[in-house]
Amino acid sequence: MTDGLGIITWWGFSPAIDLQEKGILETVEKLSLKEESYPDEVNMLLVGAGDIRHVLKTVAQRGRHKRRKINFYVVETALELYARDMLFMAIALEPQSRMGLQEKMELVLELYGNILVRNQSVHYVQKMAILFIKMVTDSDYLKDKLPLVDLSQLKFKERDFLENIFKMWRSPEKPVFDAEKCWDLRLRQYLGTRYDYRMNAFDWDYHMKLCERGGDIIRKFEYQRWRNTGVAFEIREGTYDVPNKTLASLRIFNQSGEHHARRGFWGDVVIGPFITMGLETTKKSFYKKQNDIYVKTAEDISGFNVISMFHEIATGHEYELPKVVEDSEPGAKLTEITEENEQEDEGNKQENDKEGDSNKEKKEKEPEKKNEENGVKEQVSSEDNIPTAPLDLEYEPLPVDDVKIIFLPVACLQDIVKKKKYEKLFHLVYFSNSMVHHLKPEITAMFANQSTVILETVRFMLDLKPEQLEEFVKKTKDLAEAAGCKVLEECNGKTDNFSTFVYQMNAAS
Fold first, then answer.
1. pTM of whole model > 0.85?
2. How far from 375 is each of 4, 141, 240, 322, 371, CA to CA, in Å?
3. Among 84, 198, 326, 336, whose CB has the most other CB atoms within 10 angstroms?
């Protein structure tokens, strides 16, 4: 929409939702249907979501609803987004033996929203890239290591390009791109003459736009830090100085009739990655205020939401804040929120480290020991008693039954609608605000009768004026109705993140 958003959508611009709750259950309630009327296998089409947030939340909370198989069909505009989806799903399914909940959360947020990351995060990406390359080139290996993901619908050249992306991730050479320079160039291009006064511009955007639209839980220092440096989350103390390769993509430039490919950061420099996980939570304690200022931050909420999803995926049970954290004094850090008994107290850790030498002989005889830093078991070789780092253990994902994520060819809507196998297939269809123009009458040939259609609003598109928010809702409503969709509930463009419709064949005719 604007230059500030770039040409690739690295993250979405609306909070993550459970598509069963927001889609199926809402439709059932509004139309006075029975949930049993929905089939035991549902197909959901996500067009341009930008990330995997809706899939993760829906998978995590599927145990709260009637048991059914869910097939997610994903369409994006760039293969780099599929690569990131695979990475975040792989982290979500990391077993406890390799990575604890807290570490998984920190890793995901760091790779998700920071253009600069810690060195150990890059090492993890490099290790996993080796596996991803095997997954792309060997379908049997993919079924074994990441059975949720289905790449069979991609074209051969797209799989080759995906393989090249993972090879770039795997490469130890650095920098693949100068992240700090790329970020600065994007800011200069977007701000123009305002660049020298950019902190004032960021302050204006924060108070007059972001806060006015309901984003005031995001702290000013968080937002300004990200706008100025490209670093959104600093949950773990450390040095964030290595380019995040997962946010690098190619852009083709035309110079004097010749095309040149350049790798850099071509994404959002205006809104930020806080919206998807950092605005909404069911825990009211996160909205406490002191002197009319939120005690918690968007980073705290993001961390809790990610941990909650990962815990529920692993256990099938809803995550609850430890009482000591829920009742803690204002200012308690999110790092206190951990899986029960997952991390030892830091003071105990230091004390145990002092006793390390005296207990060396005893530890060598143990088959395994507690890795207190990460809250996971550290294996010991039975032959030479040499400790094995958790991430050196073989990747064996947590089992998730009855879920499939099918990546469709990039920007393929006009092609797949002509294929018989997609006719009346989808029970729920999601369009991002940048892809909603694809909602045309011919596309509805893929919609099942009484399927739910969810359209993302432009509530957090900060470069749009308030009156344009309502205008966008009106235009998308006209598009939906022209395609045979009926409004389920009236939408306010200034306060709602989505407008929801139901597709009815008789309405289309």
1. yes
2. 40, 29, 23, 16, 6
3. 84
